[in-house]
């Protein structure tokens, strides 16, 4: 559109979330991003809008987004949008953004989101921060985040409290550093957000009933799409569901004296709890566990009911990926290990001796019921 200028920052308003659907079903990441988007919109004093694209009838899914905090849901329906294509989705999204001008646009870092985000950012002539694990607008909130998650002396730094830029934090240099990116000269500020890192808000039926549905005019022809999806094949691959697990038993470098034995102990404890086995980055880098087991900023961010850390010292990157667990139990021989700083229960001892006792105690408690 000729009147679109990404550098005209004053013309942009509202927070948008791209709400991914597959076969008409909303993805869990949508509710996480809507919940976080609600916080950001409150900080900016603007509306939160979900952007939902799909085939005919997709509007029926829009109300659910309101229940997690959306003020409006922008719905674009077309038979050409029923199945995801980069060309079709990118054209419609960019056309709608050029018309309505949001100041922030969040996309889940799923396979579709990772494909779609860069294409849209390039067309809109704005920046994109990929694979974010934390988002802030409000400067005091961001300062508090730095106090809890970094070693910076934030109190000695100068801050612009009126700064409205979206502060997008993501791992850098292989997870050894956390970088915060801003996009001060162009809008919308765009970020893809790692699934599982944002907490989903409780569903509110009253808000779902009150959400406003907006159906903007857009044009999409078959000639706009240069690829044809002839078949969608679902591949079944067994992966560890860390994000959905209520109980996680993670192992760290402390199992090094008997790797197979340490993993077996963790598996037995996880089995008694009905949970899964996770690991610190050290266990993945050493090849002891596959990458889908990794917990931390370069792995998965988890919020289980119980998180048991066996032989994990508690580096900042690992703590950031599990510190919001409801209950944290740490077992480590080093009584000064950082993991004890966030643990609800800490056991200073050899994990090879302590873990069998935990497993037996849980087994006995279950038998007594």
Task: Give a description of the structure.
This protein has 369 residues and is an alpha/beta fold. The chain is built from ten helices and 17 strands. The chain has two domains: 9-224, Rossmann fold (3-Layer(aba) Sandwich), CATH 3.40.50; 247-368, Rossmann fold (3-Layer(aba) Sandwich). Strand 4, helix 2 (62-66) and strand 5 (72-77) form a beta-alpha-beta unit. Helix 7 runs parallel beside helix 10. The longest helix has 18 residues, at 351-368. The protein starts with 14 loop residues before the first strand and ends with a helix. The mean pLDDT is 90.
Search tags:
alpha/beta; Rossmann fold; 2 domains; five-stranded parallel beta sheet; 30% helix
Judged by helices, strands and strand pairing, the structural class is alpha/beta
Rounded radius of gyration (Å): 23 Å
Beta-strand portion reads 15-25%
CATH superfamily of the largest domain, by name, is: HUPs
The CATH architecture of the largest domain is 3-Layer(aba) Sandwich
